[in-house]
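Step 1: inspect the first sequence and its tokens.
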Amino acid sequence: MNESPGVVDLLGVLAYAELSAYAHMTEDAASLAPSLADRAALSELAVAEYGHFRLLRDRLAELGADPEEAMSPFVEALDAWHAQTTPADWLQALVKAYVGEGIAFDFYREAAKRLDAPIAKLVDEVLADEGRSEFAVERVRAGLAADPVAGGRLALWARRLVGEALSQGQRVAAARPELARMLAEAEADDQAEISRMFARLTEEHGKRMAALGI
């Protein structure tokens, strides 16, 4: 295997993130969607996530890595995030799909900046929006128009999503030093750069909140 451990870590965490997103979006579509059209739309997004998982799994195998072994270090942190951020209703599910998954994917994009072109291209492909933003923003704005009071509740929910995501992201970075180094622009100042990276993630989160109207 020629790729660095950091590359395998990144593809491994991305693969498990996509597999988890598929499973939870499918569950939310079945249990929380208020209409068949909404269920179908969210299910289509979930299928796209599974397609991304397959691309990552296959690339890991091509690199000579065992996909299950590459994903396993990240199962605990990602499962904990999902367990702590189980949506109670449809609007919360949409905010999680847009805001929660969005900040996690921003984290992976930061790491992709340091990758060789073929791997960076794959990461860009699997992090493609696939209509998630448009779908979530449209539905959440419609929900807020029907129930303006829900805005405060959803704002609190979004802050919780981000707090949990940043906490788990820091755990992952601390536990996987090769991956953490990929996130740092200067090895001599890794922790400071990681702090700046999390500040950029927070800024992008603010943009998503504004798009939702909360």
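Step 2: inspect the second sequence and its tokens, then contrast the two.
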Amino acid sequence: MIRLLTLILAFCASSVTAETLRMAVTTSFHNSGLSDVLLPAIEEDTGITVELLIVGTGQALRLGEAGDVDAILVHSRAAEEAFVNAGYGTHRREIMYNDFVIIGPQDDPAEVNGLAAATAALSAIARTESVFVSRGDDSGTHKKELALWGDAGVVPEGAWYRPVGAGMGAALNSAAAMDAYILADRASWLNFGNKADLALLFAGDPVLFNQYAYIPVNPQRHDHVKADLALALEDWLTSALARDLINGYQINGETLFTFNAIAPAE
């Protein structure tokens, strides 16, 4: 009887302490495989079960605006700052970064390999009308791609430019099927299994820096959001354990993300 009572009390205690937080994250973060490393550690360490809504950055921000999630983890700074400035998020906390890369056919018909700048690479793709797959989904990657086309002075249009309206994994699959160029985050590319005849052809331009940031949804806008859990998750994401897991996550000996959590601006 005592044993049974102990089990019942333990079950009730775990039911009380186990809580779920809903977080909108980018498809590139999920496709990298890092979530499979972080989420079990978060639950074990804090008791918080993180339920991911895997969408593009634009959709993640809209979910935050509607109060459909408690926090977001995205990678488009201008859009993030607008979200916070409009009062939908309490603050923006940088967590980690990697970089964008240009993937394309191994024979590189646009000859982007060896060029000095990302804008020069995109200009070469447009000039040669080599097939280019765009995510076309208002994601952080899509926003970066459009900014790069603008900086290159190119309006991407015509049969060579193929928006697919899909997440990073699906867009990479489309590029593999079409033997096309595509802008991708390095982590998703390294974790992508269907590389076909594609190769990483261009990287290293500082403009391709890719920062990920965490934003708790503002409880003053939506009083039902779990602000206490969002702050507890932020504390964990900026902890030494998170740093070690993020910096230690590798595929084939290559590091996918670098931890750089800093305090939010006052």
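Step 3: confirm your contrast with the notes below.
The chain has a mean pLDDT of 91. The CA atoms of residues 172 and 182 lie 7 Å apart.
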